[in-house]
Task: structure prediction
Amino acid sequence: MFDDFFIRALVAGIGVAIVTGPLGCFVVWRRLSYFGDTLAHSALLGVTMAYSFQFNIAISVFLISSLIALILIKLQKRTNLPGDALLGLLAHSSLAVGLVVIGFLTFIRFDIMGLLFGDILAVNVTDLLIIWFGGGLILLVLKIIWKPLFASTVNYELAEAEGLNPDRAKAIFTILMAALIAISIKMVGLLLITGMLIIPAAMARNLSDSPFKMVLFSIIGGLLSVLIGLFSSLEFNTPSGPSIIAAALFLFILSLFRIKQSIQLKN
Amino acid sequence: MSSENILVKLDKAGLKQNNKWLVKGVTLQVEKGKIVTLIGPNGSGKSTTAKIALGIYKNIDGNVEKYTNKVGYVPQKISIDWTLPLRVNDFMLLTENLKDDEINNALSLTGVVHLKNKNLGTLSGGEFQRVLLARAISKKPDLLVLDEPVQGVDFTGEIALYELIKDISEKLNCGILLISHDLHTVMSATDHVVCLNGHVCCSGSPKDVARNNEYKALFGEQASQTLSLYEHKHDHTHGHDGEIKKN
Result:
């Protein structure tokens, strides 16, 4: 069944969309889109490390992204620079260092485009296992930390005062983000993974009046984006990662009409 | 008083931020079934003291010991991000898994059960304050920390809500740490008053405190509810580090 490359692509895409749905909602709620970008950029360094040391790409990306997140937290405490400057510093320097390292690895042929924009059609069975097992684990952990994470997203002091330990939940969430990037890098690529997180969640925001609905619509939006994107990439011979993101954008634009309608209804 | 009734205990607790003492040397305790009220002018460290008691600040001076984790908190200021689609019902479930009738019950007590499915962003200030109070009491906490819980509530509602707070402390036998600007309420409903002005000026039963000279200095000779808190005279000033200098 997984012999066909297109079936493998679909199964991978569906797996990733189910995980990016709820995580993407938190990225939107907690204003972490640039943080997600930074982790994704640092993934390139992770990939080069994997090639240099003959290591599994997903694990290597996970380790490097977690390391970058840790460095960010340290820098935030030790410098007076604003958060977005630190994020930019880490994002672009890790991307640059990653590309420089690639320059040294002349003995390996790199598919740079595949790294940047994803190559879902090259997904193999091992990748599928990583996506589904890793994704399942991410969702399980997210479910466990949901209450403290959500409560502190609404209001940190309430969560802290009422004994929910929001700092721990935040730290775990950061690790989950790194893990998500690690499992999905091959599918949409490091430049587009944040789009997969944010765009379906943004679409869902336009359609929901409760957090649960937003998570649900975000998953559905992600799934539809994968389906529309992959089939159209097959049909029109367009790159698969960008096609998925373009499909997500299309759904977001449709959701804007829904807002307009509900505003008109109110008046 | 037996020590097992103590819910939270502050021992010479204080907080220094940017080389300035926000509040210093506060010793107080809240026991089951008792209402402790913090009074004092603006910037006297009331909210800071409440947050110290709740364990929100990490780098505090002195000691704070909290003997319960069942806490309900109504903060003075709360900013909620409207990128979150949040109905009153979702907000009620924020820190505790409540049954539907527990939610309805708490919302009815503060008179806002009809707002249950409204988006939090559409509520008025007074309505939101009632929802905050309902959320804090719905989980039947051992310790309630209420930082000006009736701000923005209409006059009749204010009286009813203070009645409710008094009622809850008796029914649930929970301890309440209350911050209030309404001296009349403070005097009628409180077991213990702590008068703050960057440090503890005086404390004791409402009667004792009303007779206390420092209290008079802080709130004026005739400490009735009509007295504005902001017209009091100080017998001392504070240095930049919070040190007390007698005039």
Observations:
- The mean pLDDT of chain A is 90.
- The domain at 5-189 of chain A is CATH 1.10.3470.10 (ABC transporter involved in vitamin B12 uptake, BtuC).
- The two ends of chain A are 53 Å apart (CA to CA).
